[in-house]
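User: New here, please read:
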Amino acid sequence: MARILGPGPLGVFGIALFVITLTGFIADLGMRTALIQQADSVTEEQLATCFALQQVVVTLLVALLFLTAPAVASLYYRAPPELSWLIRLLALDLYLRSWRSMSEIRLERELRYRELAVADVAGSTAYQVVAVGLVIAGWGAQSLAFAILTGNVIRIALLFRAAPWPVRLALHLPAVRRLLRRGLALQAGLVASQAPRWITPTLVAGLIGPEAVGLVSWAATLGRKPMDMLENVVRVSLPHFARLQHDAPEVERVLMRYAVASLLACGLWFAVIAMAGHDLVALVYTERWLPAMPALVVYAGSAMIACVRRLAIAALTGVGRIRFAAHVGAVATLISVGSSIVLVLGIGFIGVPLGQLAGMVIATPWLLSGLRAGGPGRVIRAALDGLKPLGAGVVAGGFCLLLPAATPARGLVAAAVISVVYLATAWLAGPEWLRAVAREELAVPALGVRGPGTP
């Protein structure tokens, strides 16, 4: 899709998606996370109340978007007329998000992630098939909007089949007050953590244009690719931490393990991007994406810090320290947004990832300090295990770049060598518990192949 569409159309779609994402934060009101985090069982009254509130808010917001889409599009003077059409089309996704929330709440509270995974894989596959097919057919940026709607319809069907619930509307006032009190605090923290990403579809789009938005958005998406996996880890960790919320030492121990495993995944990606990224981007995406390489490298590096920050927020939310996480997030957001604005005005769109990195560097140890006295030091020392394979992978990649081979071949060779060296070092120098977990996971399919009766 990137090869066919190029930065411009992807930038236009990125702007439209930003408008819907921002509206979606308002529509959610944080109630979904509040119901997952609460210690007591979720009642049918709470589900019906949550659903009713979401339908009211979503309907108002969708109507507002349909009426104001042309005015919103006019704020981006370099954007094509199709932006308002994309905003209206994607506004329908707000309904789909709210309709699937109730089943997701039930499945996540019961830790039934197999059903969630099936729905996610099916929805993602449908998205890719529809998006690629329509892009090849010449539908342009709207291909991605239709693909999003298709994928989410499939998700809703599979989630409701896995966790059906009586669809009804109710407004139980005690449930409304409790949901909004906790949900709005949670949503404020989430908005604060996401706000630095909004510099691209606002300031960059307004000053430099949709093509720059496409370059930065592409760099952020590709650079943060391990974060796609991490979002699923965080999704699992939130109810995990909530069940451990009365055992602070165990929460910290589990957080360390999540952080180390996530750092190892992010570190491998950064090593490949930093040392072989230029060659691979030219091969896979074409040279018109090379102007985004500096931003891509910064995003890949900052993903290692972002993963610890996201896990720390999940841990704080799980143990009930929601206001502390929101406060830290607000301060970090001010730093990120302020830094990004100054840097974008001074050095262009590379200022966006640099500004976001500044906020994460401030926020991460601060968040860790909210869990337990001395927690930042212990977690950071445990996370240093991820630096050994990173150093080995970078050194191996540096030697590969000395090869007198054609650029595409050199990139492929470098990526392969970096991966082998990185994984070998991670296995040999990593913590023993990680090797034990890997052996245990690998033993399960091996037993299945041998058969239950084989010794």
About this structure: Residues 1-171 form one domain. Residues 451-455 have pLDDT under 50 and may be disordered. The longest helix spans residues 248-284. The chain is about 80% helix and 0% strand.
